[in-house]
Amino acid sequence: MSLKRILLIGNKSWEVEPILNALLNVRMRPAQLPNPTHLNYPWTFLQGSPQPRAIWDTFQDVTIELWCIQDIMDTQWNPSSSQGKHVCLPKILHYRQEQPSLVVALGTAALGLNNSNNNGCVVMGSNIFIHNFHPKGENPESKWDDPKDFEKVLTSTISPDFFKLLDTTTTNAINAHLLKPFNNPADNIQVMADKDYIGVSVVNITNYQDYATSDQSGLDKLAGTGNKLPVGSVETTHGVIRLLCNAPFVFMSGITDREGYFDADVNGKDVNGNVKTEAQNFTAAFNIGVCLGNMIPKMAGYVAGK
C-alpha cells in the first residue's frame, strides 16, 4: 500500500510554534496523539532550509508533516510576501516523492461571519477566495498575480464526510481546552466548522497598515461576485497554500480579531498600557494546535480509508 501524506502548513514562526506547543503538551492533546517521531524544535536550520517542524510516522500507512512557510522562505523575500511564499512553497511539496492526500492551511485571522465577535474561536472550512490588494503591482516586495484563480471562489475536493470527524465527543474535547484571548474575547470560544465556509485571502500585503482597509476590500470583492456562502475568516496566506497542489484542502483559522478592529483586538493594551499583541496572537495560534491535536488521529484514519 502506498504511503499517504498529510501536510499541515502554517504561516509565520510565531504562529507555528504555539501550534506545536499545544501538540506537544500531554495535558492539552488527546491520548491518541503521540509525540512526533521527528522534531525540529527549536528551529536550528538555516533560513530557507526545506525542513518541517515535526513529523508523525506513527500512524499506519500515513505520514503527517507540520511545516512553517517562514522557515523555508529564501532570505531575498520579505517574510510576509505572498509572491515569496508562492515561489518557496514547492519545497514542501518536493520534500517527499509522494503527493499529499490532504493539505491543511493553518493561521491566525480576522472573522468574517456576520461581524460578530468570535475572538479565540477556531474556524474550519474548505473554500478559498483570493483577492489581490495590489493588482497593479504597487507593492515591490510582492507582485504575485494569477488571473486564472484570483477573485473567484475556489472549492475543495474534500468530502463532506471530513467534517463529520468533528463529532460531539471531539468537539467537546476541543472546546474544553481552548484558551481565552486577552483582548475582547468571544462569549463562547469554540471550534466552528463547515465545508461551505470561505477563507478570504487578501494577498500582496507586507505593510500591516494595509489591514485598515485590505480585509474589507477582499470582503467587498467577494460580495460583488454574488456569493451566498458564509465567510469563515479573512487573512493573507490560506489561499497561497491552497494553490500549492490539487489535493483535498481545508483551512483552520485561529481568530485574533473582529473584522475592522485589528488595532483594538490585536494591538490592544492592558490597564498598565502594555501592548498585548503577542498574547493575542499566541492564544489564537495555540487554539489551532488544540483543534489540530484532536483532529490529527482522525485525519490519519480518514486518508487511510479507515
Short characterization:
With 306 residues, the protein is an alpha/beta fold. The protein has helices at 13-24, 69-72, 82-88, 90-93, 168-175, 211-223, 238-242, 262-266, 277-304; strands spanning 4-10, 38-39, 54-59, 62-68, 102-111, 122-125, 127-132, 153-154, 191-193, 198-203, 231-235, 249-258.
| Secondary-structure arrangement, i.e. CATH architecture | 3-Layer(aba) Sandwich
CATH class: Alpha Beta
Number of strands: 12
In helices, the fraction of residues equals 25-40%
- The 3D shape can be described as globular
Notes on the protein architecture:
With 306 residues, this protein is α/β, with parallel strands linked by helices. It has one domain (4-304): Nucleoside phosphorylase domain (Rossmann fold), CATH 3.40.50. Helix content is 28%, strand content 22%. The relative contact order is 0.23.
SSE diagram, text form:
Blueprint lengths: L3 E7 L2 H12 L13 E2 L14 E6 L2 E7 H4 L9 H7 L1 H4 L8 E10 L10 E4 L1 E6 L20 E2 L13 H8 L15 E3 L4 E6 L7 H13 L7 E5 L2 H5 L6 E10 L3 H5 L10 H28 L2
Parallel strand pairs: 1-4, 1-5, 5-12, 6-9, 7-10, 10-11
Antiparallel strand pairs: 2-3, 3-4, 5-11, 6-12, 7-8
Helix pairs in contact: 1-9, 5-9
